[in-house]
Amino acid sequence: MNPNLERILSEASRLAQGAMQKALASASQHADSGGEHPLHRLAAGAKTTASPMNNPAFQNSMAEATRLMQTGNLQAATAAIQAALGGAAMPASAADDLNVIDVEAHEVGRAAPAQKPSEPTVKPGPAGQFISGSHTEGTAGSREYKLYIPPASFTEPLPLVVMLHGCTQNPDDFAAGTQMNEAALTRGFYVLYPSQTQHANSSRCWNWFKHNHQKRGRGEPALLAGMTRDIMKRYNIDPQRVYVAGLSAGGAMAAILGDAYPDLFAAVGVHSGLATGSATNVQTALSVMQTGAPPSARTTASPPTIVFHGDQDATVNPVNGEQVLAASAGAHKPETNRAKSANGRQYTQRTYQDASGRVVAEHWAVHGAGHAWSGGSSRGSYTDGTGPDASVEMLRFFLNNTLPARH
Questions:
Q1: Dist. CA 25–CA 213, nearest whole Å
Q2: What are the structural domains, with CATH classification, of the chain?
């Protein structure tokens, strides 16, 4: 076996007990009185007092990693080691080796306007449909998804909204809580719900906090962008009106996608999430979730972005929502509106316009709300039905923003 690979495997085994338990303990310190929230579980899956070294599942994963390394399949071996560790952090030297991508995609025309795809290959039925599918994107891997298809009565090219669930959630749960399919039925747009796997993250979090999942052409951003493009090719999607939104870890990944693919996504919605690049490993993720990230040195602007965040969120500090907004709002001064939702929840809405008067960013601080989708349905998890309807407001914001057409 290659000595470097042997060192990685040995290091992973040594860290399995100490590092994983340390990550779990660190996450537990941040749990609020209401119980464990999903992002607190990004370091590992369900808590256990048993030693992982004696766990048959751990032993099987490490044995499989050994076999895969011997055959030279580094990507699969990495996945097996990460599954065995349950998401626990490794030291920088070993982690860097595990996160190496030996072939990175190179994409052309980053800032090119939207281009009309070829004729769709799937025709909608007379009624709305909620179907299952899967997508594979080269070395980035595969993910399943659910897709809401509006009724065939909508004949023109329609918008697409990509919805990224939070930790422990799944597409059905997220669709029920946000009620985005109900909006799509009446207003006419497609909704794509990618599904994170426990193999990729033991708590089904999108890996927003790992450096190899934060850039264009690699990791989960490449996979999710590829999935989006595949749906655009097969259905009657308007390429100028493609949007992405998410909750918590999904919100953080939505911010990454907007920054990495401004030629694909016309606007971004981040609910209770974090800014692109705010963390690069589990330890910094747990820190910024509680205190926010250091000031960013980035100079490029994000796509138009709407942010929702409860000001009593004990899982992701509300300052993170402000940091998401900063890249879109720039130095523009906001117009402020303080109001109350139909169900009595007070909120403050700040709207930012550019020099031409176009709204480029909105921030909704939902007063008294925690880590939950504002205005959501109790049929889904992590929702607060008393707040202003985040789904309705995000759609309004989205549909006011389009990409330039390519001629």
A1: 25
A2: 3-98 (no CATH), 129-399 (3.40.50.1820)
Burial class (CB in 10 A: 0-12, 13-18, 19+), 353: middle
DSSP 8-state symbol, 405? B
Rounded to 10 deg, the angle between the 249-260 and 219-234 helix axes is 80
What tens digit of pLDDT does each residue of 264-298 get?
A: 999 999 999 999 999 999 999 999 999 998 876 56
DSSP 44-64: -SS--SS-GGG-HHHHHHHHH
Q: Provide CB contacts within 8 A for 111, sequence distance 6+.
A: 262, 263
State pLDDT tens for residues 344-375: 999 999 999 998 899 999 999 999 999 999 99
Is the separation of the CB atoms in 39 and 316 below 8 Å? yes
Residues 95, 74: Cα–Cα separation, whole Å = 13
Give yes or no for a contact between 218 and 104, defined as CB atoms under 8 angstroms apart. Answer: yes
Task: Please tell me whether residue 199 adopts helix, strand or coil conformation.
Answer: coil
Roughly what angle, to the nearest 10 degrees, separates helices 74-85 and 56-70?
Answer: 160
User: CA angle 69-89-50, nearest 5°?
Assistant: 90
Tokens standing for residue 33: 């009185």
Locate tokens 């169900």: which residue? 343
DSSP 102: S
Radius of gyration of the chain (CA): 21
* Residues 248/166, Cβ–Cβ less than 8 Å: yes
